[in-house]
Task: structure prediction
Amino acid sequence: MKKFTSGFILFLLSSFCNAQNGLENIIVEKYYISDANDSLASDGISINPGTLPVGSTTYRIYVDMLPGYNFQAAYGVPGHEFRIETSTLFYNNEDRGATSPTFTKAQAKNNTVMLDSWLTVGAACQGNYGVLKTADDGVATVVNADGVLQNNDPNAGIPISVEDGMIAGTPAQVTAVGITNEIAVFDAQNDGTNGPVFSSSNGSLACLGGATGPDTSTNQVLIAQITTNGTLCFELNIQIGTPGGGVQNFVARNPVGNEVVLNSLIYCSAVGIINPVSASGFSVGVFPNPAQDFVTLHITPEKNNSASSYAIFDVTGRLVKQRVIGQISGSYTEGIDISSFENGVYFIKVFSGGVSSTEKITKN
Result:
């Protein structure tokens, strides 16, 4: 079991030293989709072999920055939760699985090691950066020794047997600050505790020296790989360093001071990127959240007399409620009864005047 080294990072929420926002996007890549052949091979361990469900998707999450900026932390603090969740469980490989990718590229040839779930600050294994398959250089592609990881599902793009998403180099080291037992959901285990939620409001996945991508022009840093047969959702808060030595903080919601809200920091694989803030002037709010029986929907349309409606989906993407509101002008408020909903996570997508925005609702 790989243990993170402990350390310290100071989150500076002061004025930005550079007016330009250096965090451009969060990229979610479908790295691989497993088939029955992968499930049967799984860990290659005869005692308590881990089970990889057929149809599991391996996702990679990248921080996409402007040149000259560096990734410092994905963090959770009061009011800004750092959360990764699945509707089922995370897949953990028992052979070489760990909370960060500590296996070698030679060990990646065995069973389903390459599909393990972990957190990182650039590495995909020892001595190799994780990169988008479309950015792979095609050198030293892993050839699986057990005849698995050969599925060519088009929904996962380039097969990993063609481009494995790894480039040789010296990635930065992970430091976990304030993250302790919650990280166990990404560790090698077969005791039924590998999920469904990683959450921290007082900790960070950090790189104390700052991490940059292997290609300084695109500057994309891999921060997580997650394999699950369920719906993957996350909320991230990111701190990056500026070329001038300052810091910038980007949050999923509820910005304070100089914090910047970035739409792609909230994601659900069932519905895609969630958009809590719109640059057009159109905005949506839902409160209280979490809620038990009722939520209040608040809409500010981009322009008067905007035709508006909403639809509510569960984490599988199933439609559970919808309504045509009609034309609205100015601020609009409506109460929604969710008392009949089962406890869990839902998404309300609001349409108004030809644009849309989606918010997450938690029913307790």
Summary: The radius of gyration is 21 Å. Residues 36-41 form the longest helix (6 residues).
